């Protein structure tokens, strides 16, 4: 082995060894966290908020994750009803596994009628309540609920009361910009989706498959 | 009508009218953006990064969105292979619509062997390349690719070259913490998922349906 090759070989060995030690430490930290966490299964409340992409699609991803574990899923779409999205088309293939309720009428900036929006949001919440009272449903997705709360179509305290009374094992995923503080306070996991870059703002139209 | 009632009525009318005007303006802004955006369908690159939840689940949500539009999907899971997740279980029900490749061996902090990880990542990338060369696949999900790039199991420039050579209509979704700058630079939509609150850190174990 030439001196150069031998140096390269030693460098590469050193990198691999540093990597091994670092990963060993990481494993120890993660194992300790897992050991410390309560292993009892329990339903959690997940909130996806912020101005970036991925709030609803992450909720739908969690829905199929739950379905993969044999759970039934209830979906209520607030606000977004006018769009027949790819997710809806896809999930309607599984009527025994997914119950779907779409509020209808589309975005409030299309209807411009606050009273009608409020009435529809209230009706959608009644549907949400039936899911939240049904222990056979493992995950409830309340898509764009935060928008309905932001415009005060629904009262946040009434909504929280219903959420907290749900079956112990039921998961809830709530999406939409501007999650109210009160909701963040009672949630288990909250993620803020921030915009780094958005194709739409760069002048690329909304694309089937990724945007709707 | 009593004076009090009449005042309440006027208040409520004023709120509704302000709402109407605000929504009208919002609609005008959104309509203008839609008009300005290029309506030609084109494949985009979406990157979900950051330390928060929802990067992978959003990618899987986009996968079913694409399936709802009749597209075929190719999934390569980098790093995460050891876990049989709910998404995988679910998507394996549709072998004609979803091609699935899992790198195997699980998290690198379990294996602690850099050379073996590199080899496996390279093999997984070969699978990714076959998807990226196939115009019949409408969306390619490269789950946790950013981790493989971060540990330099794969060369970011080689990966970018392959991404840019893909069919014009094909969407790509890339997930994982620490997306490299070079990748952000060529992506169309980039979202940073930030942690506001995490159930796991609060001592609640990972839950089937929401976490795996």
From TrEMBL, chains A, B:
It comes from the Bacteria. Residues 15-34 form the Cob(I)alamin adenosyltransferase N-terminal domain. Keywords: ATP-binding, Cobalamin biosynthesis, Cytoplasm, Nucleotide-binding, Porphyrin biosynthesis, Transferase. Its main location: cytoplasm. Gene3D superfamilies: P-loop containing nucleotide triphosphate hydrolases. It is found in: Cytoplasm. GO terms for molecular function: ATP binding; corrinoid adenosyltransferase activity. Pathway: Cofactor biosynthesis; adenosylcobalamin biosynthesis; adenosylcobalamin from cob(II)yrinate a,c-diamide: step 2/7. GO terms for cellular component: cytoplasm. Its EC number is 2.5.1.17. It catalyses: 2 cob(II)alamin + reduced [electron-transfer flavoprotein] + 2 ATP = 2 adenosylcob(III)alamin + 2 triphosphate + oxidized [electron-transfer flavoprotein] + 3 H(+); 2 cob(II)yrinate a,c diamide + reduced [electron-transfer flavoprotein] + 2 ATP = 2 adenosylcob(III)yrinate a,c-diamide + 2 triphosphate + oxidized [electron-transfer flavoprotein] + 3 H(+). GO terms for biological process: cobalamin biosynthetic process; porphyrin-containing compound biosynthetic process. The keyword ATP-binding applies. SUPFAM superfamilies: P-loop containing nucleoside triphosphate hydrolases. Belongs to the Cob(I)alamin adenosyltransferase family. PANTHER family: CORRINOID ADENOSYLTRANSFERASE. This is Corrinoid adenosyltransferase. The lineage of its organism: Bacteria, Pseudomonadati, Pseudomonadota, Betaproteobacteria, Burkholderiales.
